[in-house]
Amino acid sequence: xxxxxxxxxxxxxxxxxxxxxxxxxxxxxxxxxxxxxxxxxxxxxxxxxxxxxxxxxxxxxxxxxxxxxxxxxxxxxxxxxxxxxxxxxxxxxxxxxxxxxxxxxxxxxxxxxxxxxxxxxxxxxxxxxxxxxxxxx
Length: 137
What we know:
Elements: H1 2-5, E1 7-11, H2 16-28, E2 34-38, H3 42-50, H4 54-57, E3 63-66, E4 71-73, H5 74-84, H6 100-118
């Protein structure tokens, strides 16, 4: 599916919460539909420039989701990522019943405190040989 090949999660490569989430998703994504790139990578920077996404991504430094057509941020990105996993994870679409401003307030609270609550790495993760086709740039 074209949609699946273009499912790219852009994450804060030095954030322990973001890295933990990527590790969890790597295990849960049995169909291998998601690709990953740290926001600090050349790949992510080039994707944002190539598709003229500077305005939509300004100020977002935790998680973004590129679906091949558009970029999603904050709670919308989280819901899109979960729904891409399929199966039981499609239940995450119930989150859309909450108004976006409420979902984003919760997201912003976690994003603002993620380093304090979960810590931070000195450098972005390096993909293992087994993960090179899934972790970009």
